[in-house]
Write a structure and sequence with these properties.
Helix content: 10-25%
Largest sheet: 5 strands, antiparallel
Radius of gyration: 14 Å
Distance between the termini: 17 Å
Strand content: 35-45%
Number of helices: 4
Number of strands: 10
Number of domains: 1
Oligomer: single chain
Length: 114
């Protein structure tokens, strides 16, 4: 599933269907930063693969990531040009296209092409 979005630098938010992404489901539900599993640095289990946090949240250019699913009510994104296995996933943490990278902790996962 791919979602069209527009980044507004003046407000620091991303618009989906003309409305702020943070307003679509509420900040606590739309972004992982307030979720207990995120704060506790728990691994993310997605598509039968375990992912762990990698570094700090980063900003991405609009269109560079695409939505590939959901984890506990928060969208899960991968690089737009990448296919399964993703190797890395990105979970939104705040407005302005800010995402927390997660990397597969399975050595075989990073070796397969995508």
């Amino acid at each position: 599933m791919q979602i069209e979005a527009e980044y507004r630098p003046q407000t620091g938010d991303t618009l989906v269907a003309g409305r702020p992404f943070s307003g679509e489901r509420g900040v606590a539900e739309g972004y992982a930063s307030r979720e207990s599993w995120f704060v506790a640095n728990e691994p993310v289990h997605f598509s039968s693969v375990r992912y762990i946090k990698l570094g700090r949240p980063r900003r991405f250019a609009p269109g560079s990531l695409r939505r590939v699913g959901e984890y506990r009510g928060v969208g899960v994104y991968a690089e737009a040009q990448r296919t399964v296995p993703w190797g890395a996933l990105y979970i939104p943490t705040g407005p302005g296209c800010e995402f927390q990278p997660y990397q597969s902790d399975s050595p075989a996962e990073g070796l397969r092409g995508g």
